[in-house]
Specification:
Blueprint: H1 3-25, E1 34-43, E2 53-57, E3 63-68, E4 74-80, E5 82-90, E6 93-102, E7 107-114, H2 133-141
Length: about 140
């Protein structure tokens, strides 16, 4: 073997050993498999809705996780790359659902505007008018 071949072979061996050592030590960056979902929950006036419940579901409606919106109306969660459905509920608002596509290593932000629930039916109590003196007289007589 020539001197040049020996040096090239030795150098290639060192590069291979160094690459293996770095992989084992975790010094190389791994390809991300997860992305981030950010949901911003607001009312129709675009004010944050705190304490809203945000469910992250698969396309087959399997529950991945349930989160509660912070004071700023935001929830943040890391999920595997793929399609998801967000279902947002709050006692004072109508529920809303949105679809989101999450890509590995990326952030997917979605705004969800909630409409206030309509006021419930008003209950009005109607009292029967008190009988007049003539009706009262006939009732006392048994008529």
């Amino acid at each position: 073997m020539t001197k040049v071949q020996t040096i090239v072979g030795f150098g290639a061996g060192l590069v291979t050993i160094a690459g293996t050592a770095m992989s084992l030590a975790g010094l190389t960056s791994a390809v991300p498999s997860k992305g981030e979902v950010v949901a911003v929950v607001q009312d129709r006036a675009r004010k944050p809705v705190a304490a809203a419940t945000v469910e992250i579901l698969t396309p087959q409606d399997a529950l991945v996780t349930t989160l509660t919106a912070e004071q700023d109306g935001r929830v943040v969660h890391r999920v595997k790359e793929g399609r998801y459905r967000l279902r947002v509920t709050h006692p004072q608002f109508n529920a809303e659902s949105r679809h989101v596509e999450v890509h590995a290593g990326e952030r997917s932000e979605i705004r969800v505007l909630l409409a206030a629930r309509p006021a419930g039916p008003t209950v009005k109590t109607v009292m029967a008018p008190s009988p007049g003196p003539i009706r009262k007289f006939f009732r006392e007589l048994g008529f």
